């Protein structure tokens, strides 16, 4: 079926089988996957090489009420890879959302981003404020915010906790993977640190990540975008803080109180910044006893807030 037929049926509420398409954004061929039916929700995957398979499986409940479009960023295969590292900056990846919107011929997007995908989605709302209808930032990375105080606090709380001992060993081993396999090993080792209840969820989540990517020819994680995006963002010393006030859409921020990577403190910086601009309406929801993947540890609350927000009931 053509994309156009798929999209018009899905938007009309007629469920369609999941399918992957591609389009051209400037010099790049980018892939995206469509699933579900109902109003369109674009989901931005992180740009560091984890792809969108974990989001397709984790966020599947949203496909009952929405047509979900998962955008696979530049640099993550099979989407094509920029030759220049600067083109791999998280902020620069936001231009691909604008290309997607133009290509879809829609005036604005409802947009959701998780983690680094949240940073890309937020950058898009800052650069193209009138093009974002609603924004959901789930455990977003806030670029340019020095969150080492949070890192130190969690380390203090967790260093004697046997549930995190393996993850802490992994961190001490350094975080400079050279191959996809090494990145996979690093992620597997760190996995407990992403959770408030690692004993319940960490291993299961990792196995699901592997399972979700099993049909992909590119593995569950890719080291090339991991390195390129990391280098590009680190070199981007100016950062992008200070642009929050440009956001004018309604924004929902969801963050776990036990997220050591993308913290409540970071989310508050974005909340204050958006409020400070005077146009955007922002709601911050802190999920208790919850780490970096709210749909795993606080699924009921997470989907309830997200769906109500998208349906404009609150
Ligand atoms: C980040 O903040 C910590 C204190 O919380 C400080 O020691 C450190 O130098 C800062 N790093 C940068 C790069 O500014």
TrEMBL record:
Q: Does the keyword Nucleotide-binding apply?
A: no
Q: Tell me the leader sequence span.
A: 1-20
Task: Tell me which UniProt keywords the record has, alphabetically.
Answer: Hydrolase, Signal
**Pfam families found in the cross-reference section:** Abhydrolase_1
Q: Which GO terms describe its molecular function?
A: hydrolase activity
Task: Read off the InterPro entries from this record.
Answer: AB_hydrolase_1, AB_hydrolase_fold, AB_hydrolase_sf
Against SUPFAM superfamilies, the record matches this protein to: alpha/beta-Hydrolases
Domain of life of the organism in this record? Eukaryota
The UniProt record lists the AB hydrolase-1 domain at 53-296
Q: Name one GO cellular component term.
A: membrane
> What PANTHER family does this protein map onto?
HYDROLASE, PUTATIVE (AFU_ORTHOLOGUE AFUA_2G14860)-RELATED, MONOACYLGLYCEROL LIPASE
What name is this protein filed under?
Answer: Alpha/beta-hydrolase
Organism, as annotated: Glonium stellatum
């Amino acid at each position: 079926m053509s994309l156009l037929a798929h999209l018009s049926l899905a938007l009309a509420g007629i469920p369609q089988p999941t399918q992957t398409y591609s389009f051209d954004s400037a010099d790049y061929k980018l892939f995206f996957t469509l699933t579900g039916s109902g109003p369109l929700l674009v989901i931005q995957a992180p740009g560091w090489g984890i792809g969108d398979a974990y989001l397709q499986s984790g966020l599947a409940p949203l496909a009952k009420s929405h047509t979900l479009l998962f955008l696979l960023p530049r640099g993550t295969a099979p989407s094509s890879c920029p030759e220049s590292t600067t083109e791999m900056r998280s902020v620069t990846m936001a231009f691909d959302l604008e290309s997607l919107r133009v290509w879809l011929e829609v005036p604005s997007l409802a947009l959701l981003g998780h983690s680094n995908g949240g940073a890309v989605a937020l950058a898009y709302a800052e650069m193209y404020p009138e093009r974002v209808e609603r924004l959901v930032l789930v455990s977003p990375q806030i670029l340019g915010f020095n969150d080492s105080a949070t890192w130190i606090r969690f380390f203090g709380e967790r260093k004697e906790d046997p549930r995190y001992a393996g993850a802490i060993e992994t961190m001490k081993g350094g975080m400079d993977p050279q191959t996809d396999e090494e990145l996979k090993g690093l992620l597997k080792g760190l996995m407990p640190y992403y959770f408030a209840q690692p004993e319940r969820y960490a291993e299961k989540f990792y196995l699901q990540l592997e399972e979700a990517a099993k049909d992909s020819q590119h593995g569950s994680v890719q080291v090339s975008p991991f390195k390129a995006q990391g280098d590009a963002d680190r070199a981007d010393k100016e950062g992008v803080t200070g642009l929050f006030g440009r956001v004018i859409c309604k924004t929902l921020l969801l963050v776990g109180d036990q997220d050591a990577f993308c913290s409540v403190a970071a989310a508050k910086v974005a909340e204050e910044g958006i409020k400070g601009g005077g146009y955007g309406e922002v709601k911050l929801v802190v999920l208790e006893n919850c780490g970096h993947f709210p749909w795993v540890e606080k699924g009921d609350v997470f989907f309830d807030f997200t769906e109500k927000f998208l349906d404009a009931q609150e």
